[in-house]
Amino acid sequence: MIYRPVPARLPVPAGLGRFLVLSTVFVCAACGLVYELELVALASYLTGDTVTQASVVLSVMVFAMGVGSLLAKRLRGRAAFGFGVVEAVLALTGGLSAMALHACFAWYGQAKPALVGFSLAIGVLIGAEVPLLMTLIQRIRRQDAGGAVADLFAADYVGALVGGLAFPFLLLPVLGQLSGALLTGAINAVAGGALVLWLFRGDLTARARGALIAANVVVLLLLAAGSALTGPFEKAALQAMYGADVRVAVHTGVQDVVLTGGGPGGQPALFLDGRLRAGGGDASRYQEALVQPAMDGPHRRVLVLGGGDGLALREVLSHPDVAEATVVEPDTAELRLARTDPGLVALNQGAYRDPRVRVETADAFDWLRARHDADGPYDVVVSDLPDPDVTTDAKLYSQEFYGLVARALAPDGRLAVHAGAPEERPHTFWTVDATVRSVGLRTVPYRVTAGSPHGGGRGEGWGFVLASRFPVQLRPARLTVAVGPDEVRRREAGLLPSTLMHPRYGQ
């Protein structure tokens, strides 16, 4: 049976009513894309591996949109009421999604099931919008299906453009993830509710109108409550993840930086993107294990890539015969904390106050690419960068990147690379090793030994690669041990280097 929409009774002329429907399409499309980008961003922040997580979120949402479109066919007879219900539920689900996902991650340590669930739910609701809006716009003025689809999708795509630009340039930097999602939900609820309760009020029974008013009031109250509780929620979530003594928690635009402790009798600790980078006992072993083996040779000029916290720099400056140490770090907020925060300054021992230190605020890849050979080679290069399995940083573990590093390295210079956890992610670890070797450097893979004089064994999973143009020896050390020859022989056969065109981490 062919469905034929009945002309609507509108309180305004048909032309104005049509404009209002298309304006609502614009607003809802903007809100829908913000929800999508919010889920992609949260997937990246909370679980890492941006490409995989973005693919999962977007694929699930597109599939769910198709399901929602099919389900909406059953609501065409009551399109106005159905659209009102869909927008109220979508506003609540999308608005609270960021808070719910953060709660799952903070208290349960796992956000992936909830991420897939929200992707499905939001996708179904977004998919139901277009068929219902098509029905409503056809009820205002009948036109050929092609023209109606063109008008509807034009408004939809322009709204998506606005939402896509508003998320990274307005909502995220000004309001943050939680408040940005809550505000988007409120806008979504107001736009959908106003269209149905005013423009199409003639289609609603008194009971349906009362139900929609009540639903929208409840949604707006819940979103307002969420907004009022954002501060306490963020504090509680941080304490759930890092303990009760969180002093500093900032998202710098590059990474999340959290500092804990540092009070009277308390030991300061630094977390970057949720990973412990420095603190008491074993936590400082990472920087010592990364830097000191590379310093066993000429080290008059040293280049530190990343490491804005100053902790690797602290290890470099422990050698009095270092004449110059250059730090290349893009995160100005982390650099500022490393210079001014008492706890972090205590951890890095005031490294940035040393006159031998020069700081370049830049992306390591871009800085190396723009560097002139006339600037002189470096005896030691320390690559203190985020984990290689984080897709957004894959270029900093690529063949092209190590080619630039090799060009900056003195003929007898050494390179030290943080290569991930050899036990937990052996494919990633050996891919780093293969990629470094692909630019003509010889490597010695090594790891932090289990246990320490302080106990705890917190750094068991840290793996590194020491490289040079000539055969390099790793002297026995208190903290480090070379990967055994049997394990080296068992490295994955035929492992290819990672390049910008073919990133191979996380495969």
Automatic annotation (TrEMBL):
<protein>
    <recommendedName>
        <fullName>Polyamine aminopropyltransferase</fullName>
        <ecNumber>2.5.1.16</ecNumber>
    </recommendedName>
</protein>
<comment type="pathway">
    <text>Amine and polyamine biosynthesis; spermidine biosynthesis; spermidine from putrescine: step 1/1.</text>
</comment>
<dbReference type="InterPro" id="IPR036259">
    <property type="entry name" value="MFS_trans_sf"/>
</dbReference>
<comment type="similarity">
    <text>Belongs to the spermidine/spermine synthase family.</text>
</comment>
<keyword id="KW-0620">Polyamine biosynthesis</keyword>
<keyword id="KW-0812">Transmembrane</keyword>
<feature type="transmembrane region" description="Helical">
    <location>
        <begin position="149"/>
        <end position="172"/>
    </location>
</feature>
<feature type="domain" description="PABS">
    <location>
        <begin position="230"/>
        <end position="469"/>
    </location>
</feature>
<feature type="transmembrane region" description="Helical">
    <location>
        <begin position="178"/>
        <end position="200"/>
    </location>
</feature>
<keyword id="KW-0472">Membrane</keyword>
<keyword id="KW-0745">Spermidine biosynthesis</keyword>
<feature type="transmembrane region" description="Helical">
    <location>
        <begin position="79"/>
        <end position="108"/>
    </location>
</feature>
<feature type="binding site">
    <location>
        <position position="255"/>
    </location>
    <ligand>
        <name>S-methyl-5'-thioadenosine</name>
    </ligand>
</feature>
<dbReference type="Pfam" id="PF01564">
    <property type="entry name" value="Spermine_synth"/>
</dbReference>
<keyword id="KW-0808">Transferase</keyword>
<feature type="binding site">
    <location>
        <position position="309"/>
    </location>
    <ligand>
        <name>spermidine</name>
    </ligand>
</feature>
<dbReference type="InterPro" id="IPR001045">
    <property type="entry name" value="Spermi_synthase"/>
</dbReference>
<dbReference type="GO" id="GO:0010487">
    <property type="term" value="F:thermospermine synthase activity"/>
</dbReference>
<feature type="binding site">
    <location>
        <position position="329"/>
    </location>
    <ligand>
        <name>S-methyl-5'-thioadenosine</name>
    </ligand>
</feature>
<comment type="subunit">
    <text>Homodimer or homotetramer.</text>
</comment>
<feature type="transmembrane region" description="Helical">
    <location>
        <begin position="212"/>
        <end position="233"/>
    </location>
</feature>
<dbReference type="InterPro" id="IPR030374">
    <property type="entry name" value="PABS"/>
</dbReference>
<dbReference type="GO" id="GO:0004766">
    <property type="term" value="F:spermidine synthase activity"/>
</dbReference>
<feature type="binding site">
    <location>
        <begin position="363"/>
        <end position="364"/>
    </location>
    <ligand>
        <name>S-methyl-5'-thioadenosine</name>
    </ligand>
</feature>
<keyword id="KW-1133">Transmembrane helix</keyword>
<feature type="transmembrane region" description="Helical">
    <location>
        <begin position="114"/>
        <end position="137"/>
    </location>
</feature>
<feature type="transmembrane region" description="Helical">
    <location>
        <begin position="55"/>
        <end position="72"/>
    </location>
</feature>
<dbReference type="InterPro" id="IPR029063">
    <property type="entry name" value="SAM-dependent_MTases_sf"/>
</dbReference>
<keyword id="KW-1003">Cell membrane</keyword>
<comment type="function">
    <text>Catalyzes the irreversible transfer of a propylamine group from the amino donor S-adenosylmethioninamine (decarboxy-AdoMet) to putrescine (1,4-diaminobutane) to yield spermidine.</text>
</comment>
<dbReference type="InterPro" id="IPR030373">
    <property type="entry name" value="PABS_CS"/>
</dbReference>
<dbReference type="GO" id="GO:0005886">
    <property type="term" value="C:plasma membrane"/>
</dbReference>
<feature type="transmembrane region" description="Helical">
    <location>
        <begin position="12"/>
        <end position="35"/>
    </location>
</feature>
<dbReference type="GO" id="GO:0008295">
    <property type="term" value="P:spermidine biosynthetic process"/>
</dbReference>
<feature type="active site" description="Proton acceptor">
    <location>
        <position position="384"/>
    </location>
</feature>
